[in-house]
What does this fold into?
Amino acid sequence: NVACEELRDNALSALNNLTKALGDAATEKANAAALEEESKRIEAEQQRIDDERKAEEAKEQERARKEEEERKKFKEAMEAQRLLEKLKEDEEAAAKQEALKKKEAAKLSTKGTSGKCQGCGLKKCKKTCLFYSK
It folds into this structure.
């Protein structure tokens, strides 16, 4: 696309130079109006091409800006997701640690969570119970 534009620019420039070079003193007066019209047409064409390039560059810059903004939003979303996952892992680790503490305390205790003896199952142990204490 860029190569085609360069070729077109070169061709228009060469045409402009040829139209100027072909006019000698005798034919220049006769063809002055035609040459002037051709020069104006070439200038108008060149201006149109430049305007198209500027419009295309503006579109490309806008697209690049939007793409960069989208990348930034995606990066922020990924960072937020990573933080959420880390918080979840920390909460799970804390819950697991708490469960281990409760389990360890239950192992060391003679009474269960319901308040009954783990050995005999009664609220007050009999003398035959392993955990009986006076």
Q: What stands out?
A: The CA atoms of residues 42 and 48 lie 10 Å apart. The mean pLDDT is 84.
